[in-house]
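Case study 2.
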Amino acid sequence: MYENAKRKYAVVDLEATSAGSNAAIIQVGIVIIENDEIVKTYSTDVNPHQALEDNIIQLTGITDEQLETAPDFSQVAREIFELIEDCVFVAHNVKFDANLLAEQLFFEGYELRTPRVDTVELSQVFYPSLEKYGLGYLAEVLDLDLSQAHTAISDAYATAQLFLQLKAKIESLPKELLESMLPFADALLFESRMLVDDAYRTAKPLVSSDYHLSHGLILRREQEVGAEKQLSQQFEINRHLLGLEERKQQEIFAQEVSAAFDQATPTFIEAQAGLGKTYGYLLPLLAKKELEQLIICVPTKILQDQMMAQEIKAIQRVFGVEACSLKGPGNYIKLDAFYHSLRTQTDNALVNRFKMQLLVWLMETETGDLDEIKQKRRFESYFDSLKHDGNLTADSLFQDIDFWQRRYDKAKISKLLVTNHAYFLERVQDDKAFAKGKCIVFDEAQRLVLALDTFSRQQLEVKDILQDLQKTLTETEQLLDRRLLEEISFELNRLVEQAYDKHRYKGIKQLEQDDLALLRQALSELSLACVRPLQELLLSHYSDFWLSTTYDAESDKRHIFLNAGNKDLLDFKQLLPDTQKLYFISATLEISDKVNLADLLGFEIGTFITLPRQKENQQRLFVDSSMPMPSDISEHQYALEIAKRIEQLTSLNQPVLVLFTSKQMMFLVSDYLDTWSIKHLTQIKNGTPYQLKKRFDRGDSTVLLGTGAFWEGVDFVQADRMIELVTRMPFDNPKDPLAKKLDAHLKAQGKQPFWDYFLPLAVLKLKQAIGRTQRRPQQKSAVVILDSRILHRSYGPLVYKALEEDFHISSQNFANSLTEISEFLL
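Prediction:
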């Protein structure tokens, strides 16, 4: 009999006066496990002989009065020691619990020398795709009993259930996988590796046909979706089979999509947000028997993943449609790179834990999409080394099972293919057959203009260039090469210093031809690998150059980029091959009376369909007349005014989404909320938009501060009641190169860029943002617009009238709005 069969485990959780080194225990919870069963529980309060801080009382629910009559630790120390002295010590964050308890026991004359196992790290390794590993989150996703979180016995009991699930999962893994993990298991905290060692002793070899075993890696085979069923020509039948609620506007939209299929010209459909457009175009088009392949192209990878996980998963389940999601190769793991990484020794414990995590993940993923590893941001450089480069050599060990190749091949034969704007443009430029003869739907098509401009640019991070130059400079012996490298480094640093002086690392600095003359001359005389990226950017077809800066709040680092682009807009129509059918779907196609989306994309003819608009009765807009004008106060004062309003809105006990046009303003407001101890989530600071949305939907915080993707790319469906705060009108930055291009393009056509394009586009973005919080009939949302320029500037009446077409809107001071919002959301 193996030793692990005799093991006893003590799962321990402590509540303490703080998380610091001077913490005193106030509550102990212990769960004893034998033979994989919970056999005993123990709990006690402990009198710390000091007053508790307010945050500890709020977190645990424990009060000073409760602890006044509790025993001293000295009175329970012997009982605790005798209960756990012959057990393996298990905890969720074992370092804190074991160290604190061992220290307190030592002071009472008991030396605790038990092995220690940490369920946080084990969860990270063996549940590799989870977003977080806090006990509350794990309890939710793994169905653990955590009825009274942050009480010691409840947390210990939930941890005991987690431990048993982990133990069972590890013991279910095949011997080959566990053997591959053993060389890295010392990276786990304390004696946590004992679960891997114990499981390996009794593990069975892989026998399931659901997996590939190749060079020590075990990969899951893709699941078959079953026999495909022909969709009905009647939208309402397909809708009923999917269990969807009836929406009149959605049905009208679907009829228009179906009727336009046989028209040779592109079809542009303007449809109001919130009517269920995705099913509205998927179902009628998939029902077409003459359809060769349907390509859906959405703006972001987040929306791509969201569509695959929701609408397309449901369609596959009911109709068995073969579907594939395709991103750029860099999104997928390259198995050859990972294989070589496993054979490269390192003392970095985090990397070794990631190697274990990825070995488990490869048994579970069907896509190989590295975005499934939510913790990869902890060591992005390691994951960057594993990204696929799109090349698969003849000597690859994994040629037949390479994830990128499998996606690429499946994309060719799938009836339904989902991709994103950026990858579509990249792919169709090099491979016209990718889109030739296909039916293509561009969802949120207004964002194609930005995608086209981004696609026509090239960007390099200056810090990376300078590091490569410096490395080569120390290695090369050629005197001329060294002088040229020194000159290039000097010129780059000079340009950066100018940007710093004039813009304090904010915004954009346009570079003139004279700024680049010496840099170009030096580059033209070199043939070293380190300067090739610079040569491709500065010595090629680009005509426009600028420096831009971004700030990463999480790492507190500023990044400076050297950019190149062209002054003219890229002609989208010229990029496309002949297709079966083109659809462009947008909430607004006509940006103004003189500018529409078709013009900007290069289409002179097309069919335009505008669905009737309806005012949304479940949504109310309030323009805050008491908010100061942005130009009248400083940025810090404006941020303070925003923060005050957020604080007042939290009293309504509803989720609050706050949208910013500036990261700097977002961080300033976040700082105020931190100072006032108002719990909130902030984009970048607390994670990616995808991560924050999930946490917000789950109720981790009732306040979310966001920018960028939250204006257009993220829907809020979960909450029945919601408040949205818009801090500024989303005008384009006039210094942005795309804005400059459009300005010149429209002026050349005799148009007024601000009135004909930039103002109506800002209104369009605002409407789209408002629509993010009204995605189903049962929802109610109140939207507060803080930008009082709507009430005072010459363009204000146009904005107000445009919003009034779709929404019930009023302007009043914030105090009155607060009362109306409270009554409306009842």
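The mean pLDDT is 88.
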